[in-house]
């Protein structure tokens, strides 16, 4: 079976598994990777970019190498290859858990229980919940749903289409490392630099595809494109900017502004300033848009994988003909 078909069938099965099962409560492979990465950090940590780059290379390279070895072991069996792709996709995507957490916070807000909503917010993002009122919590949830649609679903599918199971695993390893060390805390400002830059690079194609699909699948495509073009570049993150701006325009809401991380206040630009403030009901709208984007991303990624596979076969065929022609002339 061709590699593009293995990815298409396996990724579809993996997304369906995520929809039906969500993330496992115990023994999640990503959590295991996180524990291993933390152990490597305890051994290697120095307040230096070079040591951080070594940490990134060891962790991402190790995870990707294991995935490549597993893929190699099953490559002669189409059924096993599809099953491995399905398992890897289910392990690295997190769309169902993302929606579940967002809806839990939305339910608490709808019931008027701001305390519970604040308590659950750290499950979704790293903001200081005590500094937020109900509308602030709702805005944080919508922004997190938008950004994590790219990070937890679309980006993985893009790299899976390019690199199969190793691509899926490599992207999740890079993204997880960025969440662990790629922030500007005193401990990780230098050490996490390589992880943060690699995450920016790996997340670039998925973020743009997410923004495009949010415009296509959202209720206001023109608003999404307008907000993306006008405001995305002002966001401090090169990848979160397009995604959050497109979601804001598609949903007709206003995102961005002042927020607090770990006691540090940031004044971010407003995205889609013409939109209204986020309300609790917008959480459900964002979750539904995220799910539509995820399934559209599967179709686009599978089609892209087929095109890449076809281009590769054509190149090999052309190279083979040229080689045969040269041998004939030599003879």
Question: Total strand count, please?
Answer: 2
Q: β content, as a range?
A: under 5%
Radius of gyration from the CA trace? 21 Å
Strand-pairing-aware structural class: mainly alpha
Write down the overall mean pLDDT.
91
Total helix count? Answer: 11
Q: Give the low-pLDDT segments.
A: none
**What is the topology, as strand order, of the major beta sheet?**
1-2
Note down, in words, how this protein is organized.
By secondary structure, this protein is mainly α. 74% of the residues lie in helices and 5% in strands. The chain contains 11 helices and 2 strands, in the order H-H-H-H-H-H-H-H-H-H-E-E-H. Strands 1-2 form a two-stranded antiparallel ribbon. Helix 5 (95-110) runs antiparallel to helix 6, helix 5 packs antiparallel against helix 7 (134-181) and helix 5 (95-110) runs antiparallel to helix 11. The mean pLDDT is 91.
Record the SSE blueprint.
Layout: H1 3-21, H2 29-44, H3 49-74, H4 78-92, H5 95-110, H6 114-120, H7 134-181, H8 193-217, H9 221-231, H10 240-251, E1 255-261, E2 264-271, H11 281-330
Antiparallel strand pairs: 1-2
Helix pairs in contact: 1-4, 1-7, 1-11, 2-3, 2-7, 3-7, 4-7, 5-6, 5-7, 5-11, 7-8, 7-10, 7-11, 8-9, 8-10, 8-11, 9-10
């Amino acid at each position: 079976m061709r590699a593009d078909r293995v990815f298409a069938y396996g990724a579809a099965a993996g997304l369906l598994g995520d929809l039906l099962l969500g993330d496992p409560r115990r023994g999640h492979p990503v959590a295991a990777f996180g524990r291993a990465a933390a152990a490597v950090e305890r051994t290697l940590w120095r307040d230096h970019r070079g040591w951080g780059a070594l940490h990134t290379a060891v962790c991402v390279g190790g995870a990707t190498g294991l995935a490549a070895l597993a893929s190699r072991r099953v490559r002669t069996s189409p059924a096993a290859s599809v099953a491995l792709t399905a398992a890897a996709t289910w392990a690295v995507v997190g769309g169902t858990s993302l929606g579940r957490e967002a809806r839990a916070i939305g339910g608490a807000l709808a019931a008027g229980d701001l305390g519970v909503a604040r308590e659950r917010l750290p499950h979704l993002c790293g903001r200081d919940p005590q500094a937020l009122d109900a509308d602030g919590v709702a805005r944080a949830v919508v922004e997190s749903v938008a950004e994590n649609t790219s990070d937890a679903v679309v980006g993985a599918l893009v790299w899976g289409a390019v690199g199969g199971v190793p691509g899926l695993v490599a992207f999740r390893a890079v993204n997880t490392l960025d969440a662990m060390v790629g922030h500007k805390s005193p401990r990780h400002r230098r050490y996490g630099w390589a992880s943060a830059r690699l995450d920016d690079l790996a997340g670039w194609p998925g973020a743009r595809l997410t923004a495009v699909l949010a415009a296509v699948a959202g209720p206001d495509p023109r608003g999404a494109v307008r907000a993306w073009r006008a405001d995305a570049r002002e966001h401090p993150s090169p990848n979160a900017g397009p995604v959050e701006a497109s979601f804001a325009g598609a949903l007709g809401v206003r995102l961005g502004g002042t927020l607090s991380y770990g006691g540090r206040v940031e004044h971010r630009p407003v995205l889609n300033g013409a939109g209204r403030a986020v309300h609790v009901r917008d959480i459900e709208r964002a979750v539904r848009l995220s799910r539509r984007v995820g399934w559209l991303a599967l179709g686009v990624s599978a089609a892209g994988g087929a095109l890449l596979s076809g281009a590769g076969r054509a190149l090999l065929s052309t190279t083979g003909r040229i080689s045969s022609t040269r041998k004939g002339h030599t003879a």
